């Protein structure tokens, strides 16, 4: 299987890349013009050779939300619809009922719903119907700011999530809360919140597979807190006691922690007991605060990824370890649907690296391929500049068939684990919960392997013979001979 990637950021173009796991090679496919500061992009659907996506432009003032399509066969990119936002859009998601896009704005401090329409080819278009906007009440009104005075002077919505009941969850860096929002069509109201410790700066969150727990990373506190959602929605739901791992690597002196920021939080798609969290700014501590003492002169090669291994119930931390990357200021991190690979990109220098995730616990990361934009000459500008070198987001785009297969396989594995751990009592309930055909899940529970993992009936070679033949062909190719 090969993987297609899309990267964007504070630059004037999108870039698509191809990752070949067998060759451990990452190569650039094409550049496409992009709106100003394309800070986030997500693939919505695919049709033939066309990927349909939605993106954010932080903009010079208000920013915008837009849909676009990339035709890989023709090498073209076209923005199909665009709507303004209230200010510094941070994250969006497509609602489960496909009625709207939910958007969180960082400077606007709002949650907005944008009506959409879906074409026969599954292309999403932002309609001209007016959006609805919800403004949660800032809880630190009396002092005028949160514990972090410079960064918590208003609500700063950083992400939007939706559970299976249709409730929205919005991590808010400014208020130290994750707002819980009830929706009726395009009408919204706050119906509760998760209360993070003061000064956390809630940035990103993920659900456990059965949505019984939510994990939240604090950009300002560098800690991950967890919430039991059995009582949600309710006001002031407190974190699970004793769950607060600090993700900063031990190589960073405690006096220097304030100069770092946590960034991305991911849950492994097929192993629910491992979280990945990215740090950033490890190479810039002295630059960000020159008066600090004892800052090491030898800078690390890049930022670290914290790997948090959880106990079976997901409510306690088993162990914490770190992986050092060569990426400067990690701003984007994505996992492939099959959980085999992680891609990270850097805000400073525009680097990108692909890691293979192995180990029974998903805690072994090995570098497979990487590209540094600093060494690349741009077709359009012909020179390097700061804006073209910043990458904020990355999207893994497998072919539609690959994406569908790997996505279902991941849901099957999670369903089996939920049954075995007693979170779900019956196969039928698990099949409904994880959107899997009942017969497929029943067969897998009876230890019938997936077709992808089965040996084909018409296979002519043993696995050893296949490996030997592939190695022989690669050896011929490396010496310039045809196989």
* CATH-assigned fold name of the largest domain: Methylamine Dehydrogenase, Chain H
Assembly state: single chain
Continuous helix count: 5
Q: What is the end-to-end distance?
A: 21 Å
CATH architecture of the largest domain: 7 Propeller
General description of the model:
There is one protein chain. The two termini are 21 Å apart. The protein is mainly β. α3 (427-433) crosses α4. It contains five helices and 28 strands. It is 12% helix and 39% strand. It has helices spanning 285-288, 400-420, 427-433, 438-445, 463-478; strands at 3-8, 13-20, 25-33, 38-47, 50-57, 64-71, 76-84, 89-94, 100-105, 110-118, 124-126, 132-134, 161-162, 168-172, 177-184, 187-195, 202-207, 213-218, 224-228, 261-267, 274-280, 304-310, 317-324, 330-335, 341-346, 352-358, 364-371, 393-397. It folds into two domains: 3-418, Methylamine Dehydrogenase, Chain H (7 Propeller), CATH 2.130.10.10; 455-483. The protein is globular. The strands form seven sheets. Strands 8, 9, 10, 11 and 12 form a five-stranded antiparallel β-sheet that branches. A four-stranded antiparallel β-sheet has the order 3-2-1-28, with no helix packed on it. Strands 4-5-6-7 form a four-stranded antiparallel β-sheet, with no helix packed on it. The model is unreliable at 377-389, 398-406 and 448-453 (pLDDT under 50).
